[in-house]
Amino acid sequence: MHKSGSASSLGPGGLDLTPTFFRQIQRAAPPSPTKRHTKISVVGAGNVGMAIAQTILTQDVADELVLIDAKADKLRGEMLDLQHAAAFLPRTKIQASVDYALSAGSDLCIVTAGARQIPGESRLNLLQRNVTLFRSIIPPLARYSPEAILLIVSNPVDVLTYVAWKLSGFPSNRVIGSGTNLDSSRFRFLIADHLDVNAQDVQAFIVGEHGDSSVALWSSISVGGVPVLSFLEKQQIAYEKETLENIHKEVIDSAYEVISLKGYTSWAIGYSVANLARSILRDQRKIHPVSVVASGFYGIEGGDVFLSLPAQLGRGGVLGVANVHLTDDEAHQLRDSAKTILEVQNQLGI
Amino acid sequence: MQKSGSSSSLGPGGLDLTQAFFRQIQRAAPPSPTKRHTKISVVGAGNVGMAIAQTILTQDVADELVLIDAKADKLRGEMLDLQHAAAFLPRTKIHASVDYELTFGSDLCIVTAGARQVPGESRLNLLQRNVALFRSIIPPLARYSPETILLIVSNPVDVLTYVAWKLSGFPSNRVIGSGTNLDSSRFRFLIADHLDVNAQDVQAYIVGEHGDSSVALWSSISVGGVPVLSFLEKQQIAYEKVTLENIHKEVIDSAYEVISLKGYTSWAIGYSVANLARSILRDQRKVHPVSVVANGFYGIEGGDVFLSLPAQLGRGGVLGVTNVHLTDEEAHRLRDSAKTILEVQNQLEV
């Protein structure tokens, strides 16, 4: 019998329906622990954390959902607001606490906690505030769920995924950053909208830093299996490199645009992270551009660095990185992106 | 070719991939209008409107989703934030405007616009502000979609559904208020949580005003088919009437509790209204406690009044009201609830 802590008039001292409402069948064994019970903890009940939690709930990704935040009142309000929808959803156990003990035994821990990116502020400026915060978040998460997969969303996500990796002591396959999964979705949306085709038929990766130095892999974009750049060449449709750079820049700018219009982003990152959660927990073995330890790929060197590459995800976390062919120019931009991240990272004392 | 207005570098003047990307098959006819294209317009891009829109999107309820609001920047930001998730969702056409013309031909118009309920403010206090607002919302909606179903969410929902009915000139089966659909979900959640049973196995209605004078129909509550009150009697479990009233009061207070903790409610009403939208548009013929014209039921008289009754919903809107048996006391409270609403309504000039 679990109580969500919501009502006091139902139960001992009030109206107690439980005596004999259900009768046991004979010769039953006690309930066996089920291996398929999936538990997700979301740290941070702000706009991003709640959009992720609510999408996970609607898409029926987990059996148990735990919300963690430092603000107890806001947290309780958000928990109740989700619980009240019970009549409209498959049954999911939803709880919330300021205490990390509630996250014990999580299969996946999603960290969204952090300061909100102010309009005009680059993602790197958030860093110092968030590293301090992570020192109070990552060690307890790791202690209570030593086998969990950590999925980092807080910005700047590449550096903070590195920080989470160091602070948790986890193997690198179990520490993942949401990275450019959303940038790539925005990129695919722009191309799909232009061609009036379903975005899921557009294969297009943005990799590298989730930020200004990200790299659009034009050479490997295809739509319905048709490689776009060689299509343009065969059709003798001229294009300028600058045009491609402008399209890429629109993707980078679109996040800042949403922030300047509505104050923050929430829905898209919610869908993006719920999609990653499902890929991981349901062992979908799909390829996602997410932030992984990139040392050794495409000539990246100079220290451990996390940045987005097309990575295959499954129940074990990062299964591997897809061996996508990069042009010399793309590989060069990727190495530059790695250097950008390392410059910042090396200033931290981790 | 539909353009969402998001990119300028993809298209004429920039990179135009559309020439020859897709080739037509021979002897094709122009696309035929499909009768199954469902279009939903949501008026109000605040917390409630966006939770509804996002849940409708996630649950794949409609082919086309239109957002209307007076604040153009916020509106555009919300639209982009939903569009950017295209890679993670079935394809839904999403657009937004301050101009009601975009709602043309909607199958369902959901109205959430209105002032936010301030902590401590009763729903009836919002009324005067919202009636004025409805004079600018309802007539254009009705003009652009004369066959649509109007679903009113703004509070106080019962009076505003009456106002929407008068201002639209629609037949009463096509004007519905979200009513006590959510209160009933909260009620079912409390009972389900106490008994550790799935909330969907709890049949329980709160009817009447969506507000302080709502009526809990204890006499018809059942769990897995077991009528609760007669169960208690047969098991000789004593209970006091005041305990039942306290449980009901907790349901009424739970909305105020969420507002005081997180500032507003959003997720639960989002699921509640998406659930109604699906029942209506997919002709599910399910029974929901929603605000309908209640004259003539259970002795309610004194003028046209909308309040929640268990109503069967389908593609034609309200198909009918189920003939639930009410005890004398429950019927009496329902008539009192009607009077409460009428007293306020009669002060308006609609």
Automatic annotation (TrEMBL), chain A:
Keywords of the record: NAD, Oxidoreductase
The protein's annotated pathway: Fermentation; pyruvate fermentation to lactate; (S)-lactate from pyruvate: step 1/1
Cellular component per GO, a single term: cytoplasm
GO molecular function: L-lactate dehydrogenase (NAD+) activity
GO terms of biological process kind: lactate metabolic process
EC category name: oxidoreductase
Keyword Cell membrane in record: no
Lineage: superkingdom: Eukaryota
Known catalytic reactions: (S)-lactate + NAD(+) = pyruvate + NADH + H(+)
Domain Lactate/malate dehydrogenase C-terminal: 180-344
EC number: 1.1.1.27
Catalytic residue positions: H210
Stretches assigned to coiled coil: none
Keyword Cytoplasm carried by entry: no
Lactate/malate dehydrogenase N-terminal domain sequence ranges: 38-177
NCBIfam families according to UniProt: L-LDH-NAD, PRK06223.1
Family: Belongs to the LDH/MDH superfamily. LDH family.
PANTHER family to which the protein is assigned, alphabetical: L-2-HYDROXYCARBOXYLATE DEHYDROGENASE (NAD(P)(+)) (PTHR43128), L-LACTATE DEHYDROGENASE (PTHR43128:SF16)
Protein name (database record): L-lactate dehydrogenase
Native species: Quercus lobata (Valley oak)
From TrEMBL, chain B:
Cellular component aspect of the GO annotation: cytoplasm
Active-site positions on this chain: H210
Positions of transmembrane segments: none
Residue ranges annotated for the Lactate/malate dehydrogenase N-terminal domain, each copy included: 38-177
Keyword Oxidoreductase applies: yes
Binding site for NAD(+): G44, A45, G46, N47, V48, G49, D69, N130, V153, S154, N155
InterPro entries, sorted: L-lactate/malate_DH, L-lactate_DH, L-lactate_DH_AS, Lactate/malate_DH_C, Lactate/malate_DH_N, Lactate_DH/Glyco_Ohase_4_C, NAD(P)-bd_dom_sf
One Gene Ontology biological process: lactate metabolic process
Catalytic activity: (S)-lactate + NAD(+) = pyruvate + NADH + H(+)
SUPFAM superfamilies named among the record's database cross-references: LDH C-terminal domain-like, NAD(P)-binding Rossmann-fold domains
Enzyme Commission no: 1.1.1.27
Domain Lactate/malate dehydrogenase C-terminal as annotated: residue spans: 180-345
Molecular function per GO: L-lactate dehydrogenase (NAD+) activity
Family matches, as NCBIfam families: L-LDH-NAD, PRK00066.1
Full protein name: L-lactate dehydrogenase
Taxonomic source organism: Quercus lobata
